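The instructor's notes for this session suggest beginning with a concrete chain rather than abstract definitions. Hand out the sequence below and ask the class to guess, before any prediction is shown, which regions might be ordered.
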Amino acid sequence: MVSATMCRLSVVMIVKNEADNLRLSLPSIKDLADEIIILDSGSSDDSQAVAESFGAKWYVNSDWQGFGVQRQRAQAYAKGRWILALDADEVVDKALAQVISQTINQQPAQTVYGLKRLDYIFGHRIDHPRWRVKPYWRLYPAAFQFNLDHVHESLDVGSAQTEVLEGFLEHHTAPDPEFLLRKRLAYALTWAKERHGRGKRVSGLGVLLRSLWSWLRQYVINGRFLQGRYGFIYAGIFAQYTFNKYALLYDLNHRSDSYREDYQPHAINHHKFPEPAGMNTQDRPATLSVVMIVKNEQKHLPACLYSLGDLADEIVILDSGSTDQTQKIAEHFGAKWFVNKDWQGFGRQRQIAQNHAQGDYILALDADEQLDAQLIQAIKDLLKRPVVNDAVFAVKRQNIFCGKAVHGNAWYYDRIVRLYAREQFTYHDYDVHESVGAQGVNVKVLPGALQHFTNDNLYHFLDKNIRYSTVWGKEKSSLGKKSKSSVVLALTTFHAWLREYIFRGAILGGAYGLFLSVSAAGYHFNKYIILGYKATKYDLEE
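After discussion, reveal the predicted structure:
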């Protein structure tokens, strides 16, 4: 800390599980501040020990009411006439530290000072210091405070004079792609809920236009094209963030009930479900085992099992650690219940589940899927004939996205192999996007449809996309797959959007068809940047 003869400066921070970042940021200000105030909201790592090793004063308030409120609470502990508000992932460079030291020698008045911030992702800078760098009002007299916004809070400067200081804040925004994607999605949901509560509206077209403008602003206007691949990656992620904010706002405005904790997507649910039809009692040439892998599927499982009627000779369910009523529901419908918590990926889990089955055929289902009457009859007709060992059977899966059949009723279906002879075929052991190992085998498509309720709400879908893209990137990296160049990735990401929106007919689904298409493009983009990060360990440049 500096001597008591200097104007008193309080550095104020709010944190949660920021030990690694504090190790970077605190050395840059320990000789600048008279006191360091840190307000924690429930850390479980060694943040407190790190903070106190640098002489910081540690306070705790776990009653989270948003970033703005938390900053005000933290500042209330400060005794300095000057306040320097920092995030744990920000480092004050030497030039900025020197200018701040000179600035606080004067008495506080009505001037608020902006600090220019250079963003870093995955250890690489994405802002050019000679391009226009946005200042953040972070050094100010103690009479000023942050506003009460839940996210993207800012200093309420009022009629104060403003001045931008020389030097930079180095903002280490994310150590890896998954962290950045999850952080931005969490911020987007918080922002959308707050704006929904204020009555803000947005159209589907408005969501798209804001997203495109966001990319243009980040990549071109803010000069991130100068930073090569990392500038390209960040612009893409930030455009997704803007899309997520406004698309989630649209979803909240139109389907707010789907964000309730007790939301039930089906009329038949764990609060109310009829008696099951029971297993098949007819003597058929071929028997059928319905095989499922589940975890915490009480919202979808009742409707799925009820849709089977008396189709199956047995239902085999392999659970990976449910804590809700999934087991109770499964047993109500007469399913055989097994547990394997040693998760090795979706493909391997399906293989283990199949090992518990005894039927001649396997029908692999997910809990969020339901068979229509035509598909059930087609399977029953198949079971009246001897087992087919030299072919597998695909079903036409209709995706229900945010409660809507966005591809229309007949334009596009996923055709996926789900029915096959148990002794001849099984699943690949892929971690994600697993499929039946039936290369070179004749595939017959069954009539009828399998309805797939892909998500409860848009946030659920976006979160699942991040999870799947991370697993895919890790798996493909371990197999030696390489990422795409920036140009190729841009083209293939656009193609992913075009394929979903035009070729697969999501254009018929209105705003939600657009959201699905943009999300599909984002998923494609994300899995390749995660692959690049995993495969090259911070060296994404080609």
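Then share the key points. The domain at 9-175 is CATH 3.90.550.10 (Spore Coat Polysaccharide Biosynthesis Protein SpsA; Chain A). The longest helix spans residues 228-255.
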